């Protein structure tokens, strides 16, 4: 990567990736030379999709965005950002209540690594209510999630719940 290339990271669980995430990915990818989507291996949560599955779904839905790289990571975000020479962390804000938590996180991260700034992007209005947990809940009851997630994700969710019902 070139010396003056601006690298950004958009971290998250993406369990599953939604149109809201995709909105932030598209917009943040235009602000940096390379956007790394950091898929968090969160040991505190039991995800619907494995880390590998989430990485694959993200690769599928971002395949037409040339400057996007999908990677799994664990540990502190600021350490990951340093390792990747990232200068910016992107976070999406849906509602006012997100802001308090995100602000605290951004200030802590900046204290831990002053070379990284956090940029908040407000989610487009049509996705402001949307969260992965809402999508998981609707899908768990057999509800239609086509308006919330890309087609390949709809199929993956349906397959996952069929498998869970069998096991």
TrEMBL record:
Known catalytic reactions: (R)-4'-phosphopantetheine + ATP + H(+) = 3'-dephospho-CoA + diphosphate
Binding, substrate: 13, 45, 77, 91
Gene Ontology MF term list: ATP binding; pantetheine-phosphate adenylyltransferase activity
Pathway recorded for this protein: Cofactor biosynthesis; coenzyme A biosynthesis; CoA from (R)-pantothenate: step 4/5
Site label Transition state stabilizer, positions: 21
Residues engaged in binding ATP: 13-14, 21, 92-94, 102, 127-133
Cited InterPro entries: Cyt_trans-like, PPAT, Rossmann-like_a/b/a_fold
Enzyme's top EC category: transferase
A Gene Ontology biological process term: coenzyme A biosynthetic process
Oligomer status and interactors: Homohexamer.
Annotated protein name in UniProt: Phosphopantetheine adenylyltransferase
UniProt source species: Anaerocolumna aminovalerica
Name of encoding gene: coaD
